[in-house]
Amino acid sequence: MKIEDEIKSTVALSIAKKVILNLAFTKNYVGDKFNEILKPFEISGEQYNVLRILRGQKGKPINMQDIQDRMVTKNSNTTRLIDKLLLKKMVERNVCPENRRKIEILITQIGLNTLAELDPLIENHENGITSNLTNTELEQLNNLLEKIREN
Amino acid sequence: MKIEDEIKSTVALSIAKKVILNLAFTKNYVGDKFNEILKPFEISGEQYNVLRILRGQKGKPINMQDIQDRMVTKNSNTTRLIDKLLLKKMVERNVCPENRRKIEILITQIGLNTLAELDPLIENHENGITSNLTNTELEQLNNLLEKIREN
DNA sequence: TATATACATTTGTACCTACAAATTTTGTAA
DNA sequence: TTACAAAATTTGTAGGTACAAATGTATATA
To answer: Is DNA-binding one of the keywords UniProt gives this record (chains A, B) (predicted)?
Structure first.
């Protein structure tokens, strides 16, 4: 659906405005489908992202700030996201012995199992949602998106 | 910056995953700059969107549901957004006399003045943020984003 | 008319983001 | 050593989103 129809605009929009609106619409479109998958597992999108980061550590603990740096949303509140994951026993939290200001986070077996269950569903979602585009188009889209952030 | 570097990924990502991550990153990037502009005016991005919709009505009132339909975020809570705008006297709210279930919203002069002040700043932002891309690339990006939502 | 049903909006709750201030721990300089 | 500044995290507060339930109004139908 064209972006003018999505917002029921009566006037013509500049191409800059269209791209920016389309970016938001498409991101929401993708995000909504993503949340549908996570819903039965009772974790949010950002909680999932944190779990992914923790799994990527392969057993090595990671502190709050380093988690924050790797997140999609930079101002997300890692403390409170971790709190939610702790309640579900999906992560473990320990004070770093070398520097007691730091907190070290580890993913638990429960967290790993949840991700393992999700893996095929997420991959399916990712492939499905991009299936309208050829590989060349996906590469193109990827480059154009990265180019916008080059400032 | 490449998306793998943004999230400091150590493993290669599928092109589908990269596109989806890039979509979120780029949307946040654009949105953050947008919020910086709005900040001195003490209105949020969604409040701005509502004001834009109301101005587009050119004096014709619009009800809650129709506002909702035109918003970027479909599950946003229009009642509470309008409440905030009412406090700033940027909108007016009246029960529809023909159908008392409906609520009619109008933008006030204060709302219009705020938008008029913002117009050049927003346009500047939109043109600046897309200035890395040629017009052809912007059209391409626009088409690719719309194509993803074709399902 | 009474009652059920649909419609339009509001309210409640849980989670998330943005940003500033507070807290705890560490490092450093007089 | 004491005082001060920096670092790492937590807490507080004001928006927002997502979704379900509640409220009030209109409409249909027996």
So the answer is: yes
